[in-house]
Amino acid sequence: MAKSYLLLYNGASASLWAYILYRCSIDISNGYYSFAPGDDTPHKFLIATQLFNSSFEFLHSVLGLVPTPIPTLLLQSFARLIILVGICYVIPESPANYNIITFAGLTLAWSVTEIIRYGFYVLKLGKFPVPYSVLWLRYSAFFVLYPLGLVCESATVYNSYEVIATRLPGYSAFLKYAMPLYIPGFLYLYSYMIKQRKKVLNREKQK
Fold first, then answer.
1. What membrane topology was assigned to this protein in its record (predicted)?
2. Is 64 helix (H, G, I), strand (E, B) or coil?
3. Cα–Cα distance between 109 and 49 in angstroms, integer?
């Protein structure tokens, strides 16, 4: 029952992020339609998808359905929720929400990461043969995608800071404290993935 549920969850999540990637690609080719100012809350579908994933994956970890450590899970969600809730939802007028380069960059980094991750779990849980190329991508794509996400996320927060300081001084003080934590948090996640990569790929070579 648990495996069937997780298979359904991961399949649905992979589909949601594939749609986000598709929309981002279409928007880029059409002149960044979704990045046009005017919406009361920009990037609604992206916000809803990340909140859905963050909530359910925290619950999965607490219930022991997945072995992901809770600190790792919280770090993975923290930066994204600062962007999506703390900027897109709370400060919708921030120009960072409509910055073509940085917001498209972080959307691409997040969506490709999640399509690979959830797609890998679908194959694994469904007991389908997992091609080595998919396994390699699962434990290697982060070398490029994590730094891309870090740069674009940091730029989005930085480009929002003036608006936040004017409207929400308390929140700007929080960001002054939170932003320096990006680097140690990133290094922790990066080193965690490097260790996981070494363990998994070495095990695969031994097979």
1. Multi-pass membrane protein
2. coil
3. 15
Q: Which of 191, 28, 7, 10 is nearest to 20 (CA)?
A: 28
Q: Please list the active-site residues.
A: 146, 153
Q: d(Cα 112, Cα 79) in Å, to the nearest integer?
A: 17
d(CA 129, CA 175): 44
| pLDDT score recorded for residue 135 | 94
Distance CA 152, CA 187 (A): 16
Instruction: Give the tokens for residue 193.
Output: 């993935």
128: CB partners within 8 A, 6+ apart: 122
pTM for the full predicted model:
0.91
* pLDDT per residue as tens digits for the range 152-190: 999 999 999 889 889 888 888 888 887 787 888 889 889
Sign, Cα dihedral of 41, 170, 102, 77: negative
Token pair listed for 67: 């072995």
Place of tokens 């359905």: 65
| pLDDT per position as a tens digit, 17-64 | 999 999 888 877 776 555 666 667 888 999 999 999 999 999 999 998
Other CB atoms within 10 A of residue 94 CB? 23
Q: Give the pLDDT mean for 9-19.
A: 97
Do the Cβ atoms of 100 and 91 come closer than 8 Å?
Answer: no
* SS3 (DSSP) at 164: helix
Task: Collect all residues with Cβ–Cβ distance below 8 Å to 155 and sequence separation of at least 6.
Answer: 96, 99, 102
